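thread: overnight batch results

M.L. [08:02]
morning all. the overnight job finished for the chain we discussed friday. pasting input first so we're all looking at the same thing
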Amino acid sequence: MVSELPSTVRAWKTRRACTCSGGCVGTDGGFQQFSFSTTVTIFISDLLVKAFHPLSTSEQLAVHLRGEVLLGGLGGLMPGVNQLAATLGVSPMTVIAAVKQLEREGMLQGQGPRRRRIVVPASGVTGRRLRVAILDYEPPVPSAGYMLELQHLLEDAGHAAFFAGKSLQDLGMDVRRVARLVTRTGADAWVVCAGSSEVLEWFAVQPVPAFALFGRRQSVPLAGAGPDHQSANLAAVRRLLELGHRRIVMLVRRERRTGGSGNIERAILDEMAAHGIGTGPYNLPEWDNSSEGFHRVLDQLYRVTPPSALILDEAYPFAAAQQHLAQRGILAPQHVSLICASPDPTFAWCQPTVAHIRYDLRPVLRRVVRWANNVACGKDDRRQSFTKAEFVDGGTVGAVRE
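M.L. [08:03]
and the structure it wrote out:
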């Protein structure tokens, strides 16, 4: 956060004119010293606009150093760690962490233990600046969201990132419609968010490189990244089984059900079967991907055999289910246990606390940037990676009350 920075820091003198109003308090050996308020404006204005999570001091320093590189304030050989720490008023460990982050992004190239040569992505090894099209699952919220953060990170790395004209939801996850969109869009690379196996398999055989962000990517030869949902979801269902739940229902979007259940859903059903619970369509019901279809399937579930626990894959159906059931006098955890399989900032405000799957998106987004940089250098990067996810128990989960 901003308060984590020292009250006075120093900045590289660049060719930009000082436009601060009384904030510039002097120069010192090729550096200009600014008051904290001016530093916020010059160094981390991007952070204040774009951040969707609090950043550590090292991450804020990486934002500043990245900006100086792209603006030409830094070039050639990077100053040593101790010099940077003394100049910027931070600890050497903070500098090391920030520099390592920029090395992972491909902006700095290691030249030994003490010096690092700067690599500016916009004019890097091949001089190639990618046009990266982002095919989101649903239209991005104009002022927030991790997909917008991804766009900014790609732009910071020197690429031209933009959202495709339609989302996967707009296209109905239809491969033919996706193909027409790709043909009409001038892009050097694609990032596909939460794609179905059919959509991702189509991208895998196209000449344009693509990255699978989340989605059913495990058996598809595409670069990809996302949280290890399977381990965390298994921990969640095991907690439900410990509490005596046997009528466990998963409500997930259509692409997680079509073509057979996904790996996560199969693992949950197998875990239930291992505890002697018969599984079938009741545990993974079909429903129309719409608000009406969602509320309809909830009513159908409670008409005959009410579930004792519901697992919902995203925050908005979780909230919709909680409201729908509360209007009918069905409360969590008194009458039903509710688990959301994704994190959401609003959960911090909820009482009772929400049981959910938690993970850090920052490593996932950094992996996308590294992939784009590799593609820009002509590398065939198809590596898939998983980040840690964990089940967070909460007040929406309780023991079965028959």
